[in-house]
Structures are given as structure tokens and as C-alpha cells.
Amino acid sequence: MIDDMRPVIEARGLVKHFGTVTAVAGIDFDVCRGELFGFLGPNGAGKTTTINLLIGLARPDRGSIHVAGIDCTGRLKAAQHLMGVVPDESNLYPELTGLENLCFCAALYGMPKPDREARARELLERFGLAEAAGRKFAGYSKGMKRKLTIAAGIIHRPAILFLDEPTTGIDVASARQIRQLIADLNRAGTTIFLTTHYIEEAERLCERIAFIVGGRIVRTDTVERLMEPVQERQVVEFALDGQVASVEPALRESFPELNLQVASGCLLRVISDRPVRIGPLVRFFEERGLEVGEVRKVRPTLEEVFVEITGIEAADVSCEKEKAGGVS
Amino acid sequence: MKQWIAFWSILAKDMRFYYLKPPNISWGLVFPLAWTAMFFIKSGEGLESIRALLPGVVALSVLFGTTSMLAVTVTFEKKGRSFERLLLAPIPLEVLVLAKTSGALLFGIANGFVPVLMAAFLTDLAGIHWPTVVVAIVLIAAGSTFLGLFIAVSVSEVFEAQTFSNFFRFPMVFLCGLFFPVEDLPVWLQPLSYALPLTYGADVLHAGFQQQGRMPLGLDFLMLGLFCLGLFLLSQRNIRKKWTV
Ligand SMILES: Nc1ncnc2c1ncn2[C@@H]1O[C@H](COP(=O)(O)OP(=O)(O)OP(=O)(O)O)[C@@H](O)[C@H]1O
Ligand SMILES: [Mg+2]
């Protein structure tokens, strides 16, 4: 069904305007067969717009899209039979039960009646929703809604699955379960296109990541290659009992060789290519009346890479992390 | 085959969750009853005058039944985003549109027969040309369904759909020749009458119920058919433009 040689998704020069807003400003990327490809960017970067272009809910103003070798550029419906879509907001029918919703979605893809019900029950079981199968979707909790929406997206066993921020706004346990499900699906052969603004989620799940900012892709690479420049890097965090900002100029002057980042008001991150000597720094703070509560070495993460490449402070991207339960 | 599974599921879901809901069923019964009673009382004549009222009441029931339902089944789902599910289904847009409109069409046809059934209990309906009446009801239902679709596609809020429907419905009711003949209208309004699908529908109904058609039946059917096709294609074009941004 799918040509092995070509990438499953080929996007070339995609541009999409909404009035005066340029949502997507000329992006190119390929997604290979069986890959888990991540689209990482802050709010308003153009992630959802890109998905809508790929799945046939929006038409590009310029550029071309091939899915499984099928030219979908002017033909929005041409490859929809290969796709499963999990939108950022649940769009199932509130007045239908969980089971009815799944059966209805299966029918939209032409599944015969006996298969629909069996498959729906199988997925309800797998997502831990069997108990709620007969309850109306409107009465589901947020996490249950998200799980059922994912189940609806894969009911017809699509070759390519699009997930738009699948773990945003749900608790830690549910988010972990969903990430596990995504990884399992991918292992079973589904090509996955995932958008997220959780850097750690992208790092954990994806093989390749595109950083998108302001409608442009600033870098696309495998997680390993993205991490290469920071692999050897030393990162040490200092937790202080006061604001770093008050001593920041003096600090930079005293330690010009160090790359200093103020992660939050009381948290200083020191980045260096050589081992960081902690003693002089602790003394510096104490002389200025700042108590050092904790010093810890951190493993370099994709976050640093992201900050370096995009120039965006990571906190701006995954600021909802704590609130939403974040990555675990 | 796969497309028909999708078609039937969409239609069956709409039937179950919109058209066969008690409020809609009672609306389908109360509405024609109210119109019949109103005209009957106003005419001040005996029960035999009911038959003369039938074309008007039937046409109104069909027109209002279809157009008000599409505002819900399309506009409401579009607003709640569940419509995206349908747009993502691998079925041609035409099949999707037909599936969404078939429910309204059947609902309209059923509504059209309510006054006829009620009249059957009150007066003698002998001499009515039933095939003509049935075809007329089906064609009026189709025409007003596609008009309703056109309206539903053009707006984004349910209340807008209702307001916009009335903009078409009320002038149409008074200009289509149901309650006074088109010839009695001011000369400058008459061309407008002939540009309305209901004018031809009303003419067929007059012919079917009272053998009083003014135009050849063939012309009526042709015009109704053309209106259906035209509105369908127009909606289709609007859908392509508006539903995929
Ligand atoms: N239908 C629309 N009409 C007008 N502007 C739009 C529309 N859809 C998106 N935009 C604009 O395009 C830009 C990109 O939006 P998009 O939803 O793709 O971002 P995103 O990366 O998905 O953000 P988020 O993380 O908040 O979901 C934004 O500036 C947004 O306001
Ligand atoms: Mg988004």
C-alpha cells in the first residue's frame, strides 16, 4: 500500500496565511516510514496549522504535500484513508457514549458492523475505559476524553497517525500512559507525526525532531545528533535564597569564562565545556549575602539545544509543564 | 461499499440524535396543526374548506421542517468541531453532504404528510391526485433542504442560521402563490415570485390537491429540479471554500 522507498510524508515549501498572519512560512520536511517525528515549538508556532495542511483540513497557499507517494496538494481527500488524526481538542460527539463514538468513527472509515464493535471494545479495554463504555462522552473527565479521542484516531488502524499535543492539560499519570501508548503504536509500525511544546516529551518519544518557531522550521534532526554538541557539556544548577538578578552583572564580570543562565529568579544555571569549580561561585554568593541552598549537576538535555538554536527561553515553551502535570 | 457504510452511519446517527428526538417529533406535529387551525379559523368556513388549505400548510410544514433542522445538524456540529471528524473521513464531499441532508429531506417529507393525515380524519380527500402530491412534497423537501444547506454553510452560529433562514422563508411564503395567486401580486413583484422554488412547488400542490395548477406540470418539475441541482452545487462550492480554510 505504501511505497517503501519514498518518505511517507513529504512537505515542500508550505506556506499558509490567515489574513495578515503568516501561520506557516515556507516549511520543508520529510517523515520516513515507521518514524516517530516530532514538531516542537511554542504556542502559535504553526504546529496545528501544519497538521491541518497535512490532513486535508486546510489548503496551503503555496507548496506541495505528498503522503505515501500520493500528491495531496490540491486534493485534500486523496490520502485521508491512510491517516488517523487526534486533534488538540476532543471533537467527539458529547451526546454519544464512548462505545457509540468509537463505532461511529469506525463506520466513517467503512468498517463493517461486526468489526467495528469488536475493535471498539478492544480499544476501550486497552485504554482502561471499558467501564465507561456505556457512558455519554460529555460526562468523561479530561483524561478519559483524551484517551477516547486517541482511540477514535486509531480505530481504523491507520498507517500514519497525527497527534496534536496529546498530553497537554492532563495529569501526570494519564500523560505517562498516553506516552506509553504512543511508543507502543510506533513500535507496532505506525508512522507518527506528533506536535508538542514539552521539550522533554519530544526528547523521550521522538526519533527526529523539527524545531518550529514563528512558522519556520529552524532545525530538523535526530535527537542524538541534536544532542551531540551538548553531550560533553557540564551543567550545574545553583539554588539561591535570593534573586540572582541583584548580583548578575558582578557575577558575569567575575566569571567571564562561564556561560550563565538565570533559569528563574532564584535559580542559576552554569554551563561550561570544562568541569565547573563550585567553590569560587559559592564564595561569591556568600560574600554578597546570598545563601546557596543546593548545588546539583544536571544532565544536559534537549532544552539547552532548543534554547541555543531558537533563542527562545525554554520556560516559554513548556511553561505549562508544572500546571499540566508535565513530563514524567 | 465503504462509502455507503459511512453514509448510512451519518444518516442513522442524525436520525437518532436529532430528528427522532421527542421535541423535534412534536414540533413536526404541532407546527402543521397550528397552521391548519389558524387558516381554518380565519376562513370561517366549514370543514370542507380544509382541503383548500392543504397546499399551503403542506408546503409550510416541509419548508420550515427542513430548513430549521439543517441549522442544527450542520451549523451546531461545525461549531462543536465534531464536524471535523466528518471532513476527515475518506469519503467524497458529495457523499458527506448527501448524508447530512438526507435526514433533513426525510424529516421534511414526513412533516409534509402530517397535515394530509390530519385532514384525512376531518374531511373527504377523494379526487386528490396522489402521485402528483407525493412528487411535489419530495421535490419541495429537496429544494428547501438544499436551501437550508446553503444557509447553514453560509453562517457560523446557530442563531444566525435561524435568522438568515427567515430572511428567505417568509418572503417566499407570501410570494409563492400559496395564499394568493401570483397574478394578484403587484406586477413588479411577479418576476421575483418566479425566481422562487416554492412558487413551482405550490403550483404542483395546487394541481395535486385541487386540480388548479396554473403552469404545465412538466415546467414545474423541471424548475424544481433545476433549483435543487443549482442549490446543491452552490452549497458544494461554498463548502469547499468555507469548510477547509
Ligand atoms: N483559522 C485561523 N484564523 C486565523 N488565524 C489563525 C487560524 N489558525 C491559526 N491562526 C494563527 O496562525 C498562527 C499559528 O497557529 P497554530 O494554531 O498553528 O499554532 P500552534 O503552534 O498550534 O500553537 P499552540 O501551541 O497554541 O496550539 C497563530 O498566530 C494563529 O493565531
Ligand atoms: Mg496547536
Offer a concise description of the structure:
Chain A has 328 residues and is α/β, with parallel strands linked by helices.
What is the CATH homology-level superfamily of the largest domain in chain A? P-loop containing nucleotide triphosphate hydrolases
User: For the record, what CATH class of the largest domain in chain A applies?
Assistant: Alpha Beta
Helix/strand order of chain B = HHHHHHHHHH
Question: Taking all residues together, what is the mean pLDDT of chain B?
Answer: 85
β content of chain A, as a range?
25-35%
For the record, the CATH architecture of the largest domain in chain A stands as 3-Layer(aba) Sandwich
Principal-axis shape of chain B equals globular
Look at the helices and sheets of chain B and give the structural class. mainly alpha
Describe this structure in words.
- The complex is a heterodimer of chains A (328) and B (245).
- The relative contact order of chain A is 0.14.
- Chain A has 2 domains: 9-228, Rossmann fold (3-Layer(aba) Sandwich), CATH 3.40.50; 236-299, 2-Layer Sandwich (Alpha-Beta Plaits), CATH 3.30.70.
- Chain A has helices at residues 47-55, 98-108, 113-126, 142-154, 172-187, 199-205, 223-231, 248-254, 278-287, 302-310, 314-317, 321-324; strands at residues 9-18, 21-31, 36-40, 62-67, 70-71, 83-86, 160-164, 191-196, 208-213, 216-222, 234-240, 259-264, 267-272, 292-298.
- In chain A, the strands form 3 sheets. A 6-stranded mixed β-sheet of chain A has the order 6-7-8-3-9-10, with helices on both faces.
- With 328 residues, chain A is α/β, with parallel strands linked by helices.
- Chain A contains 12 helices and 14 strands.
- In chain A, a hairpin with a 2-residue loop joins strand 1 and strand 2.
- Chain B is an all-alpha fold and 245 residues long.
- Chain B has helices spanning 2-19, 22-43, 50-79, 82-88, 93-122, 130-154, 158-175, 190-194, 197-210, 217-243.
- Chain B has one domain.
- Chain B is 80% helix and 0% strand.
- Chain B starts with a helix and ends with a helix.
- Classes of the chains: A alpha/beta (328), B mainly alpha (245).
- Chains A and B meet through helix 2 of A and helix 1 and helix 4 of B.
- Adenosine-5'-triphosphate binds at residues 18, 21, 23, 41, 43-49, 88, 197 of chain A.
